[in-house]
Amino acid sequence: MYSKLKTKPFLHKNINQQITPEILDKALKDAYQNTRFSTVPYHFFGLNSKQCIKKYKEGNCIALSMYIKDYLKKKGLKSFLIPATIPYFIQHPDLLEISHVALAIPKDENNTFIVDVAFYFIKPLHIIHDKHKNKSFHIMNFSNNGLEEISSKNEIYKQRKIFNNYQQLPKNTKYINCFNKDNEKIFWNYILREITNPDKAITSFYLKVKTDPFFLSTDYENNRCSMKTSMNLYNNNKYIVIKNNNKELYSGNIDEIPEQKKYLLDYVLKKYRNNKIY
Fold first, then answer.
1. pTM
2. N or C: at which end does the chain have fewer Cβ atoms within 10 angstroms?
3. Please, are residues 124 and 139 in contact by the beta-carbon 8 Å criterion?
4. DSSP-assigned letters across all residues of 165-189
5. Which stretches within the chain are classed as H helix?
6. Cα separation, 276 vs 278, whole angstroms
7. pLDDT tens digits, 166-217
8. Same domain, yes or no, for 245 and 127?
C-alpha cells in the first residue's frame, strides 16, 4: 500500500529568478478559475496526476501543483513540488504523516514562495530564510466561507527525521511550520525538498484511504478564491450529494434523482461525458 518517499534538494546559491507575488497571484487566480480538486479521474479512469490535469484540468494536490508549475514554466520560471504534512482534522489513521504536496518557487538564496491550491491560499506564502518568522497570510475556509489567518516559522530538522518506515528526511532539512493564528492546534509543515515520486509515494495510499470520489470546483471573486460546486459519491457510487456554495441541491440515490433535477448530473459530470460514469 505504501511506497518510500523520495526527495532531493532544490535550494542552492545559484537561484536567481525575477519573480513577484503579483505573478503568483495571477497563477493562483488562473488555477481557481480553471481547475478543481477532484479524485474522480483517479478512481474511475485510473489516471495519474499528470494525466488528470492535462485531460480534465482537475486532480488532487499533486495535479493542481503541476498545473501552477506548468503555468510558471511557460513564463520561464522554475518551481518544485514539495511534500507536506496535513492538519489533524483532515488526518486519517491510514494516512502517513506526509500526505500532501504543494509548490515552492525560489526567487533567490534568501527568498522562496509557496503556493498551495488545495489549501486555497489567497496569497503566496513568502519565506525569508534568514528570519525565523514570516509574514502571515490567509487561506479560504469553505466551512464558513471566511478567511483564516495563518502564521509560519522557518524551522530545521537538525537530525535525520524519521516519520515512519516509508518517510524519512536527511538532517538539516529545512521546513516551514504553518499554524492557525487563533488555534495553534491546527498546524502543518511544508518540507523544502523536491518530491520526485509524488503519485507513487502519496497518491497511491491516499486513494486507498479516501475511496469515495469527490470534487470541489472554485472561482475567483473579490480578489480571493470562492466555492462553487461540490459533489460527493458514497455507497459504491450509488449515493450522490451535490452542493453549490455549501447549499445542498440534491442528496440521494443517483438513479432516483427526480427528472426536474437530472440537469444537475449533466452539470457536475459534464467533463466526463466521453467516459460515462452514471
1. 0.95
2. N
3. no
4. SS-EE-TTEEEEEEEETTEEEEEEE
5. 21-34, 40-45, 49-56, 61-73, 198, 204-209, 262-269
6. 6
7. 999 999 999 999 999 888 789 999 999 999 999 999 999 999 999 999 999 9
8. no
Give the domain range for residue 200: 8-206
Per-residue CA distances from 94 to 5, 98, 125, 206, 210 (Å): 16, 11, 29, 9, 10
Burial degree of 27 (CB within 10 A; 0-12, 13-18, 19+): buried
Q: How many domains would you assign to the chain?
A: 2
Q: Are 90 and 184 within one domain?
A: yes
Task: Please give the C-alpha separations between residue 227 and each of 40, 84, 267, in angstroms, as whole numbers.
Answer: 18, 24, 16
Evaluate whether residue 3 is within a structural domain.
no
Q: Say how far apart CA 27 and CA 20 lie, in whole Å.
A: 11
CB 268 within 8 A of CB 229: yes
> How does pLDDT run across 71-82, given as a tens digit for each residue?
999 999 999 999
Task: Look up residue 197 and give its three cell numbers.
Answer: 515520486
User: Does residue 178 lie in a domain region?
Assistant: yes
Residue 87: CB partners within 8 Å, gap ≥ 6?
Answer: 186, 187, 188
Q: Determine the Cα–Cα distance for residues 96 and 177; give it in Å rounded to an integer.
A: 18
